[in-house]
Amino acid sequence: MDIVFRTDSSREIGTGHVMRCLTLADALKEKGCRALFICRDFAGNIGGLVRAKGHEVVYLPHRQDEPDPDDRVFHAAWLGTSWQQDAEDTATVLRERFDRPVDWLVVDHYGIDAKWEKTLRPYTRKIMVIDDLADRPHDCDLLLDQNLYENMEKRYDGLVPPGAIKLLGPKYALLRPEFYRARQSIRQRDGTVRRILVFFGGSDPTNETLKALKAIKMLDRPDIAVDVVIGSSNLHKEEIAAFCRDMPQVTLHCQVDNMAELMANADLAIGAGGTTTWERCYLGLPTITIIIADNQAEVLTVLAQNGVIWNLGFCHSVRIVDITQAVRKLTNCRICLKTMEKLAQQLLDSADDGYEVVCLKYLL
User: Fold this and answer.
1) Any residues with CB less than 8 A from the CB of 201 and at least 6 apart, and which?
2) Has the keyword Transmembrane helix been applied to this entry (predicted)?
3) Which phi and psi angles does 144 have, rounded to 5°?
4) Which residues are annotated as a binding site?
5) Per-position b or e across 78-111, b if 16+ CB within 10 A of its CB
6) Are 356 and 302 within one domain?
7) Counted domains in the chain
8) At 201, which CATH number?
């Protein structure tokens, strides 16, 4: 089977869309499928990582034209061109690479909606959409939204064709195999914080990583080890590295491939929303979260209301001292940490084969 992914990563977009597509592509590769990633060559993209995993990447050319002014898709500018031009660029790749329609076209992009998808219909047998926003219509056969919302079952009513299959909720979370292995052998935390993990995604444009480090330094607990993870596209990495050098208990990691191990070893995390949310929950890692993008707000709010995480709110209103106070309170409350751990794991109890279900039952 030939499966094509249309997705992007950049310093603005982040890396989460490509990473969850990569999880799916890796699983499909094990089943004998061929995956092709079509991405625009934005600054800070992680196409190199996709290639390192053994998948082909075709970069779309830079365009000078502006997004369609009549396009009502909120994130239309993330395409780097008009939707019409992006659709034509993608169609050109498919015409050149394949002599027949591909088996699946997987779209994970906030800048794409039904207009684009209908244009690409002649080049694919079926279309899968991975989305979180439910803010635009889609012309798809299969839709995956792995997030938790109060109105989850009704969010896409009227936005997808009546016959489309909808896979909704964390039980379909696209977790990499390393997380399944880590959960099988995970230690039982006792509510004592000996190690903190700090990770705010691959790009962290507002530099919440440094803010969290300053908060931990203010905590004045040199006995607590700290793992800090940043992506290769992080523009602040030199500043973060310099700050880490003055904190002997801190280990800085860049573009890691052992995130599950780092999460399993941690007793507390400080981070943002996105795909990492479900990775932390699956491993029962208590977390203090900071919202760094509007699309993270609803999910993190629901999780906080259910006691799964401690959400401090939007990054622009979170002070260093707010993080310090939250960490101090949790380090002094074993029952709080144990409760968060239990609730997080229970939420993802049904996700033990999420990506396998998506692959075997729906794509193959």
Assistant:
1) 14, 15, 16, 231, 271, 272, 274, 276, 292
2) no
3) -120, 125
4) 176, 279
5) bbbbbbebbbebbeebbeeeeeebbbbbbbbbbb
6) no
7) 2
8) 3.40.50.2000
- Same domain, residue pair 139 and 231: no
What's at 360, amino acid-wise? L
> Is 35 in the same domain as 142?
yes
Contacts of 160-165 with C-beta under 8 Å, sequence gap 24+, read 160/129, 164/138, 164/140, 165/141, 165/362
Question: What CA–CA distance (Å, rounded) separates 120 from 128?
Answer: 12
Q: What is the CATH number of the domain that holds 8?
A: 3.40.50.11190
Q: By three-state DSSP, how is residue 138 classified? A: coil
Which residue range forms the structural domain that includes residue 115? 2-173+351-363
Examine the domain organization and report whether 153 and 280 are in the same domain: no
Q: Convert the pLDDT of each residue in 321-350 to its tens digit.
A: 999 999 999 999 999 999 999 999 999 887
Query: Which residues, at least 6 apart from 361, have a Cβ–Cβ distance to it below 8 Å?
Result: none
Known binding positions for substrate: 176, 279
Amino acid at 29: K
- For 2-48, the pLDDT digits (tens) are 999 999 999 889 999 999 999 999 999 999 999 999 999 999 999 99
Alpha carbon distances (Å) from 264 to 178, 190, 234: 11, 13, 24
Count of C-beta atoms within a 10 Å radius of residue 340: 26
Q: How many other C-beta atoms lie within 10 A of the C-beta of residue 48?
A: 11
Angstrom distance (rounded) from CA 241 to CA 228: 10
Q: Are residues 141 and 187 in the same domain?
A: no
pLDDT at position 152 over 90 = no
* pTM recorded for the entire structure: 0.92
Within this chain, do residues 145 and 242 fall inside the same structural domain, yes or no? no
* pLDDT recorded at residue 355: 67
Of the chain, the percentage scoring pLDDT greater than 90 comes to 83
Give kind and range of the element (H or E) at residue 275.
helix 275-282
**Tokens matching residue 66:** 């502006």
Active-site residue list? 17
Do residues 71 and 146 both lie within one domain? Answer: yes
Closest residue by Cα to residue 282 from 257, 301, 264, 256: 264
Find out whether 9 and 45 touch, Cβ atoms under 8 Å. yes
